[in-house]
What does this fold into?
Amino acid sequence: MAHRFLKRLIGLATFIFCISTAIAASRDYKTIIIKAPFPMDSVQEFIYPKKDYLITRYGAKSGGEFNNTKAIDKAITACNKKGGGRVVVPSGAWLTGPIHLKSNVNLYLEEGAELIFTDNPSDYLPAVKTSWEGLECYNYSPLIYAFGCQNIAITGKGTLRPKMDLWETWFSRPPAHMNALKDLYTEASTDVPVEQRQMALGENHLRPHLIQFNRCKNVLLDGFKIRESPFWTIHMYMCDGGIARNLDVKAHGHNNDGIDLEMTRNFLVEDCTFDQGDDAVVIKAGRNQDAWRLQTPCENIVIRNCNVIKGHVLLGIGSEMSGGVRNVYMHDCQVTDSVYRVFYIKTNHRRGGFIENIYMENVQGEATQRVLEIDTDVLYQWKNLVPTYETRITKINGIYLNNIRVKSADSVYDLKGDERLPIANVEIKNVEVGKINKFYNNVFNVLNLKEENITYSKYR
It folds into this structure.
């Protein structure tokens, strides 16, 4: 009898413990409900423990001369081991090498704080598992990097400012660099294990990302500034759940995309400003055989209330999109200077994959070459550098534009599908262009194109 009573008591205690644990866990997150024209999961914003770890307590020194890499790492490790919180960078200039975040850590940049990253490549070794334009490899560590982490953040009103003197000398693409790209492409195309794709060697000069979170969950980027970047500026790679908000990003070097979401899902980008030397907001999903191996689409992405000052593209899809891109919604954004394209979808016959259910509405801009362009033959330098190992045509289906206004454009829309698998179901509504400079439209291999209420004043 006593044994039976004890067993019931233990069962009841276990039940109460599980319930209380579940309630406590639910309190650790704030649920962000996002409206979209497709089923969209809510985004969970982690509520970090109210514990601060000042980097000065771990030996950090301001002034921009002392290298604080070890001190910052000690603060991050302590924060992680004690259950999480904020690693605080106070006002001042703080020189550092790579910063590797850990789970439950919020890197908090106080107003007036500047993290100044060295431009000595050896500081970013040993190489880490990363990627280069959709191909996985081991390369120099991104300046801020996380791999396989959960609940990580960079917040505050401070600034990330890398030194650029050395990286700028790597912007050109001499033969050694092109041969390295060729080697990486060949290794990925022939299923060489990623661990053997060592690219941080010799004069390969594959520049590191500024921020790359790789295979992470519940990401938050909020409030800080970025001033320049060696390569892609913010890269979310195979992440699940995240928010980028209130960012002020300016980077005008080579390949300086603003934010790249690659094989990532359930992500919100809002209230950000981008001023870029390349594309502003980019949705990607890996390249060719690598992406077919990983089988991870990029999906459920919402971008809203953002301002692009300058860039190549306001919203770009591809060209690395072999894992597939679906359910993307950009709305209520603007371009205050100029972009080459407002909305650009690009792929080629090596990519395969799919692009479907992509929506843009309520966008205003100044000058652009194309309001909408879809090009299925974009190969850049790869066209003659490497052969086609396998042909796979991209399925493009369901592209929707509504309520777009720009003051001038060379063309309203330029759609170039592949005759082997034409683009399907494109809807362009309520587009107003002040001046068309060259031609109205260009359409090849498109099925079910719907056009409604497109107006313009005159050709220049």
User: Anything to note?
Assistant: The mean pLDDT is 94. The CA atoms of residues 80 and 105 lie 6 Å apart.
